[in-house]
Amino acid sequence: MGGFAMSKTYWQEIMDRLDTKVTRMVEQIGGKCPHFAGADGKFDDIGSDWWTTGFWPGLLWIMHDMTGKDLYKEAAWHWDGTLEEWFVKPTVEFHHDVGFQFLPTAVIKNTLTGDEDGLRRGLEAANFLAARYNPVGKFIRAWNEDKYGWVIIDCMLNISLLFWASKVSGDPRYKHIAVSHAETAMKYGVNEDGSTKHILSFDAETGEYIENFGGQGYSAESCWSRGAAWGLYGFINTYRHTGDERFLDTAKRIAHYFIAALPEDQVPYWDFRLEDDKRMFRDSSAASIAASGLLELAEVVPPGEKSLYANAAERILRSLTENYATWDQPEHEAILLHGTGSGTSFIDVSLIYGDYYYVEAVSKLNGWKHRIF
Q1: Which one of the listed residues 97, 271, 283, 355 is annotated catalytic?
Q2: Confidence class of residue 8 from pLDDT cuts 50, 70 and 90?
Q3: Could you confirm whether 70 is annotated as catalytic?
Q4: Distance in angstroms (rounded) separating the CA atoms of residues 343 and 354
Q5: Catalytic residue among 65, 154, 271, 283, which?
Q6: DSSP 74-114
Q7: Looking at the whole model, is its pTM more than 0.90?
Q8: 154 an active-site residue?
Q9: Mean pLDDT, rounded, of the chain
């Protein structure tokens, strides 16, 4: 990819390209609630209670913040209201992912515009998330149905909603729950070498740890790359909100594992411990999430360590930009190709959360400061 204007930096030019791309996406996606796009380049239209609902409007809010264009704000404005309607439906399927749903909708809306409904809805979601806390096991329950004692690594980013709620409400209980959950995830979900586990199972009655499952990873002994990215970003956020060095050390361990395990083009396979004949599908979403987390890590470490994480993030983002993006496919409704949800679903597709974290990370390289996660 070439032809960058000499008067602009590489990442400023990419921001301009994103502006052109996302403007087109607004028209293409319209009123859909996008999750994945397959080979035809068209996003699906998933139910608005699905866990990924917040990422498209969140991407739009960041673009509005970076460009000042009302087009993006207008397209994003209604989403937190749409999500709130699910709280009063008898078939509500919300679970711990209200963080992913309301942080990039209600919370960022309130942060950027002062909208009181955004504040109210964000706190409503935080109350819902806090109510899933098991005080005996010291964890936030992940999913519904009979999975009362299941915890997943993804929740390390959802708890950012609780840190925000404590900040805006003045009530420390939200933060206490977030820290308690992070301590449990750190103890049982992160291995000594920095690899991570996806699903942890506890006895919901006694709080005792039982076992872990492979979940979306290859096996219980492997390391799902997106799970590692969630953990990396989540633990550095927890450090940022608490100043507790244990969480910083954990984030570093995961970061070192992630960086060391990357293939030559810096975009991971969907699991880091695949057998050779299973290494077929990359996960660009894991790459973009990790890159954004690495940029956060670079901001809080001593000067001598900063380049390790910042350079790793930029290598990942350059590879995504030059090898995985759809700049030359204007009809394609997504930004990144070659995302993988797991080894059994959403394989080699475009994923809206991969696009969100790519835009978030590139925006950080262009000076964006309004942290949501």
Answers
A1: 97
A2: low
A3: no
A4: 17
A5: 154
A6: HHHTTHHHHHHGGGGSTT----TTHHHHHIIIIIHHHHHH-
A7: yes
A8: yes
A9: 95
